[in-house]
Automatic annotation (TrEMBL):
It comes from Podarcis muralis. Belongs to the mitochondrial carrier (TC 2.A.29) family. This is Solute carrier family 25 member 48. One of its GO terms (molecular function) is transmembrane transporter activity. Solcar repeats lie at residues 3-86, 99-204, 213-300. InterPro entries: MCP (IPR002067), MCP_dom_sf (IPR023395), MCP_transmembrane (IPR018108), Mitochondrial_Carrier (IPR050567). It is a multi-pass membrane protein. The lineage of its organism: Eukaryota, Metazoa, Chordata, Craniata, Vertebrata. GO terms for cellular component: mitochondrial inner membrane. Keywords: Membrane, Mitochondrion, Mitochondrion inner membrane, Repeat, Transmembrane, Transmembrane helix, Transport. SUPFAM superfamilies: Mitochondrial carrier. It comes from the Eukaryota. The keyword Transmembrane helix applies. It is found in: Mitochondrion inner membrane.
Length: 309
């Protein structure tokens, strides 16, 4: 059982890396839409990013999550799988006993809670790097320092390491966890609506008598689960993105409640559904790639372990 526990973490890294590569361009669009920088709708945001920054603009900030996903996604999948097995062992005396809905919910909540500790700083740096390219005219509207004409572009951070260093110097260790309260409120229910639909859909799509789901079943179930999870998580994801983007050039929000209040009063209820389409659309291929990478690598690792006991 010990090797299987490690396999979950390794497979989680593979799945996470696949998800970052597939989903990062749309994640950049989603972040900029939610942070409220005047991009308008999704199509206008895509065009603006492309015109101003070319294709590279969609991959801004990808290096850090791609590297750090080795830890973050490993933790999420490792904690979920091992917690699920522990619950089954305690409740049924067999770690491989099929989990109940309550078992899946508990394991999902554990994964969501633990992931914030690692995922908070990763998400913060990613969003800061995605959001740092803004014209000074936007800063000027907020009575901040700016250059003449307002057409030059400010680069606050030179890269992930510089970004972390700047945050630590300016805001201290707590600065790396800006928006973590909103992230907890997003991720605990979000992971329940991620792992539970995936498990149920996999069981439903897989033909009777098959020992494991086919790659197509994994891809389809993972994609649908991702669309459901990210779609329903959008309101709190908006709050989290705004809190984490806050601080690149100014400090606008005092916390979750203040962010919700200011956002609602300035833009109405619709602001909390900004990026919903991008989230749902992005959630399908990203999660499909994640679960497929996870399941296929997990299968390969276990077959290798059996061949070389």
């Amino acid at each position: 059982m010990g090797s299987l526990q490690l396999d979950d973490f390794v497979a989680g890294w593979v799945g996470g890396a696949a998800a970052v590569i597939v989903g990062h361009p749309l994640d950049t669009v989603k972040t900029r839409l939610q942070a409220g920088q005047g991009y308008g709708n999704t199509f206008k945001c895509v065009l603006t990013v492309y015109r101003n920054e070319a294709v590279a603009g969609f991959f801004k900030g990808m290096s850090f999550p791609l590297v750090s996903i080795a830890i973050y996604n490993s933790v999420v999948f490792g904690v979920f799988s091992n917690t699920q097995r522990l619950i089954s062992q305690q409740r049924y005396g067999n770690s491989h006993h099929p989990p109940s809905l309550a078992d899946l919910a508990l394991a999902s909540m554990a994964a969501g809670a633990v992931s914030v500790g690692i995922g908070g700083p990763v998400d913060l740096v990613k969003i800061r790097l995605q959001m740092q390219t803004q014209t000074f005219i936007a800063a000027a509207n907020l009575n901040l320092k700016h250059r003449a004409a307002g057409f030059s572009v400010e680069t606050a951070y030179r890269g992930p390491v510089h970004c972390v260093g700047m945050i630590l110097r300016q805001e201290g260790l707590g600065g790396l966890y800006r928006g973590s309260s909103a992230m907890i409120l997003r991720d605990i229910p979000g992971y329940c609506l991620y792992f539970i639909p995936y498990t149920l859909l996999c069981g439903w799509i897989t033909p009777e008598g098959c020992l494991s789901p086919s790659p197509f079943s994994v891809w389809m179930a993972g994609g649908i689960a991702g669309a459901i999870s990210w779609g329903t998580a959008t309101p709190m994801d908006v709050v989290k993105s705004r809190l984490q983007a806050d601080g690149v050039y100014w400090n606008k929000y005092r916390g979750v409640i203040d962010c919700i209040s200011q956002s609602y009063h300035s833009e109405g209820l619709k602001v909390f559904f900004r990026g919903l389409t991008v989230n749902a659309v992005r959630g399908f291929p990203m999660s499909a790639a994640m679960f497929l990478g996870y399941e296929l690598s997990l299968k390969a690792l276990r077959e290798q372990a059996e061949a070389n006991p």
